[in-house]
Amino acid sequence: MAHVNVFDTTLRDGEQSAGVNLNRLEKIEIAKQLERLGVDVMEAGFPASSQDDFEAVKEIANTVRGCSVTGLARAHRKDIDRAWEALKGGAEPRIHIFLATSPIHMTHKLKKTPDEVVETAVEMVSYAKEKFPIVQWSAEDACRSDLDFLVHIIEKVIDAGASVINLPDTVGYTTPDEYGKMFRYVTENVPNIDKVILSAHCHNDLGMAVSNSLAAIENGARQIEGTINGIGERAGNAAIEEIGVALEIRKDRYDYQTNLVLKEIKRTSDLVSRLTGMMVPGNKAVVGRNAFAHESGIHQDGVLKESTTYEIITPSMVGIDSNRMVLGKHSGRHAFKEKVKEFGFELNESKLKEAFESFKNLTGKKKEVTDDDLFAILTDTQTEH
Ligand code: KIV
Ligand code: ZN
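Above: inputs. Below: predicted complex with zinc ion.
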């Protein structure tokens, strides 16, 4: 079974979410939890961006031993030097250099010709390789780049010493089919491609970041990049927990393994949410509050008889104690009876009917009936009137 590396960028691209600002200690807490989660690489920050980021990256690189720590750098010598100062004490120092390759970025942002971009990329990768054992190079905005230009520049940066090539969907524009085809094209046309690991980095502007990452894996990517809870620039990055669980649950389709310890997912998600202040939406796949909640009578009845009727992921797989039967207006007798038992009440059939009717009346007034509401109904029903 092929291995897929998990590259976590919660502390770099994730921290670029509007309104998020992690201090050094918060970053270190998250880094330790990411290590427990089993990521292969963590991008701890962008050392040249600020003194605080430099200090945080340095401390994380010197503390974390269980995985490789990397830092982002523009294709500038001073960024690479700064990254080296921050990362040199790490267990496996690696640098992540990016340079845009799309006409739109080369013309308007970099104001460089394609030949100048190739020259800069090659020069900076060779320079970084003098220090770093592992150099990752990203073709920023790869999905809006000319495919043959991508093939050309990738061949050159591999010759210059890059060992990981990342093809980001920087603006979340691509579809799974297109993204997969880009990886296939690069794999089939870059002559020295077998010397490197190909990486996928997807943004979620059109809600396709996870699907695009899976399509990349099926077409040759052996590293996926993402963040916890999918936080990140604009609409965020691919959610690592969703990719990890999809690969596990759909083993029939995806014959790949990762080092992720899936049981650590919920703890990691909670920590990132608390420290970044980015709330996880209730309906968020894998870690949302409702991801294992059942409200309708038909679903509750099915799950109580056999959980796999409506649950494809077991809560314990991702570190959640159990599923939840939510009592609301769609709920039926089966879940209600279970809840009564759970509270330790023994009601005869007519009392049970009476209590169920009171509960149904309450659902006309409240969206969700809480345990306290239910307890009040049950004690009230038991009391002889
Ligand atoms: O989305 C992107 O292109 C990036 C690069 C820095 C890799 O985050
Ligand atoms: Zn990004």
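The pocket of 3-methyl-2-oxobutanoic acid (ligand 1) is lined by residues 13, 72, 98, 138, 140, 166, 168, 170, 201, 203 (CB under 6 Å).
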